[in-house]
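re: that complex we talked abt at group meeting.

here r the seqs, copy pasted straight from the sheet so there may be weird spacing, ignore it
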Amino acid sequence: MTDALSLEQLRAWVDGFAASVKEHREELTELDAAIGDADHGSNMDRGLRAVGEALETKPPADPAALFTTVGMTLVSKVGGASGPLFGTFFMRLGQALKGVDPVDVAALATALEAGTEGVVARGKAEAGDKTMYDALAPVVAALREAGGSSPGEALAAAAAAARAGAEATVPLQARKGRASYLGERSIGHQDPGATSVALLLEAAAAAAGGGAPAT
Amino acid sequence: MSVAIVVVSHSEPLARAAVALAGEMLQGGEVRVEVAAGLDDGSGGFEVGTDAMRIKEAVEACAAADGVLVLVDLGSAVMSAEMALDFLDDPTLRDRVTISPAPLVEGLVVATVAAAGGATLAEVAAEALDATAAKAAHLADPPEMHADPPAMQADPPAVSGRFTVRNPHGLHARPAARLVQEVRCLGADVELVNLTTGAGPEPGSSMIRVAVLGAAQGHEVEVRARTQEAVDAVLALAERGFDESIESFEPFETPPRPSGAPQEPGAAGAPREPEASGAPRADAPRGASPGVVVGPVRRLVSAPLEVDDAAGSVEDEAGRLDAALADARGEIEATHRALRHTAEAEIFEAHLALLDDDTLRGRARALVAAGRSAPRAWADAVAEVHDEWAALDDPYLRERAADVDAVGQQVLRALTGAAPPAMPAPGVLLADDLTPADTSALDLALVQGVVLAGGSATSHAAILARARDVPLVVGAGDLVRAAPDGVTVALDGGTGEVHVDPSDAVLEDFERRAAAEREQRRTALDATQAPAVTTDGATVVVGANLGSVADAELARASGADKAGLVRTEFLFLGRDDAPDEDEQAATYAAVAAALDRRVTLRTLDVGGDKPLPYVAAPAEDNPFLGVRGVRLSLRHPDLLRTQLAAMVRAAAGAEVEVMVPMVTDPAEMDAVRALLPEGASLRLGMMVEVPSAALKLPAFVGHVDFVSIGTNDLTQYAVAAERGNPGVAELGDPLDPGVLQLVERVVASGLPTGVCGEAAADPAGVPLLLGLGVRELSVAPPAVPRVKALVRTLDTAACAELAREAMRLPDAATVRRLVEGA
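got the structure back, here u go
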């Protein structure tokens, strides 16, 4: 096992994320039904299917191209807020990874940090707003704490942090997005966007060979 | 190119509909509006969602515009729009794009209008952001009682302009009303400052606040608004003298105007002095009901109103106040309609604006909320505004406090249910106008004659005046307001002459005319009980049109052969609930008994111009083309069923038939017939007033037993000239050859045909109608002897020749000349 992720592994991450979302599609939709408009699962699934097709049609030459394609496709195919948010996230990853191949943990941490910043800039969310940011926020720190570990181990730690962050959204009251219209009634439900982030990091860990696939 | 707009929505249909809605607001201007809505579902359709790439393309499509305002709906629309700006091929375009947090629909409407008016991107964005202001103001709590000027928006108006008040009496009630109307139409925040006195700023949307500026002629006023469009509109209005009649402008030479300014052409004219009598007018007085009379000037006087302090719950009192305001509004609107196109109409426009004024209403509502009775709250609010106006420096504005009082009294009367104003003593009644309700409430024993400022010879008031043989002159204008109470007035309702305080020679002349008239009437009356037979032996039934039991007695004395039209409205007008079946049956029977001849009862004929409080009728821009007559009756089948049942009962003891007004299709007659009590057999006829019905009358054979042509309405619909509108009064002549052809078509259907309009009593109309084959006329009771006498001089063959020739002529005037020469 190398210390860096190859284009194939990164592609496997994206494919794994798509498969995981497909598998959890109903669960995500149910989470969204509780506090949103019940389309997160189907939107993400459709978007990621389109991503798969786009990557088949025009295989990316490097990690930067891979994530840029993912981001652009999500922007056009995911109608809800997830489109611009996940789209921005992946496009920032793409920008940050320009000329980086393979991608080691440090570079990945930098890229994920850029992606997270993009999400914050786009969604104007803060920690505790009950958004995908609550799952993303601890990821970079976890990766960096993992220090010299292998990408698999580091990403496994990051995935655990994301999962914990997603679960921590349950008692929160939504302050952003459509769920915020529900006010106190949003309390008691896990945020679907944060849940998708957990799936994303779990897929990354699996692709890097560092942990069990998504739960 | 102006500012363009991009509409971003999750829903394509929503965006398209919003764009269509906004497009309705555009008058001539053009604005580029791009839609980026929905999400491509991969098969050519749209799903709900937003797509940053589509938004990018939409923004880029507007690249040629001076700026692009992006309006977005929910959540992701905002993010997708922001993202789209990141994607722009030309990053400098971004500087000309603003994403607006304005509400999508309201913002789009306002932004479209502002952009069409050439506003800048910043202005369009500001307008859009403020788009809910009108809604917010509408739904806001009433303003505080001691109305300081309503708080202005935090961000100051961006644009300003100045005008000098040209109107001789300043920005008083009527110009102020016009200004407020304009500002409200603009939907813009407009503030006004009187630069000459320093008064203001005051909001341009409140007439009371505008009046408080005390802007007199020559004063310089600053207009402040958010958009140049709003400022320009107000300045243009000021330039037009706030649409005040040209004749009310004095020659413009007053010094306060900055020197060197050009003199406005067209602003000169005779000064308008309310005290002066007979100021030159475009339209002279016209006779509307014949008869010569000399008598003292009288006006309708109201009994002093008692203000009751006993208050119910706040909700009850607020409801009372709203109902009274609505009643008063209906009354003023009716008067305004009648006076339309005359200078007097402006007075009632001002009254309407006062009635709608947020300051006045707000004060009254606040007082009601504080626990006062509705009458007390209204009276106090009116008194406050009155005092405020009366304290102004400008003498003319001080006088306009009278407008406040007039409106105040009207609402108070509606609140207290006080009796309508009445004649204090016998004499000649001078009034602005009379509503049908006013006219029917008149004590005819006291009314020797009537002179109206407005009105037309074909208005309801005129028809009723003729029915009651009351001499009437309409269109007398200022004279009506100027003549002092009690002074002698001589009038001729045939020629339209009116003399206030006449000379001895004029008096003598009028006395002589009156005597001759009496003599003529006596001769005709002597012969009137006999049937009217033409020289060639054709019998013509001459009936009477009735509006009360008293009319029936008069008709019998006048020798009417039947009642060709009984207007049952008299039973329904001026009351709070509909008469029940017993009351109606008794009244119809009384009419039939008083006449002791065949009676044709017409079912209720009301519409938006004669609203009844217990019949819900939609407010209509054009009540004469709206839900009236049978159209209204069929929407209130219970009312019609009750009336038909009462008519059937009256028919049990007398010769009674029923006719239905304003029928367009045979199906309407079938629907009426279906409401007759089971087993009832009654001759059921229709009025022919709708030109289309006249032309397709054969289609009604089998659906109706007889027809009666209402020439007044048939004429107004055929020549497209409203009856109450003096501006088109000359067109509305039933002797128009086109109308005569419609009558010919009706007679040709073979259905028994009568004529019950004004033409039947018109000396020129009678020979033509006989010539067209009509053998039944119905006229105002006093006209029966005269019409019978006329019929006896006519030969039907000669009449037929005359009618044939008349139908080939170009207009009513030549028809009249033809008949006069015959």
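couple things i noticed - DSSP finds 32 helices and 26 strands in chain B. Confidence is low (pLDDT under 50) at residues 142-155, 246-282 of chain B.
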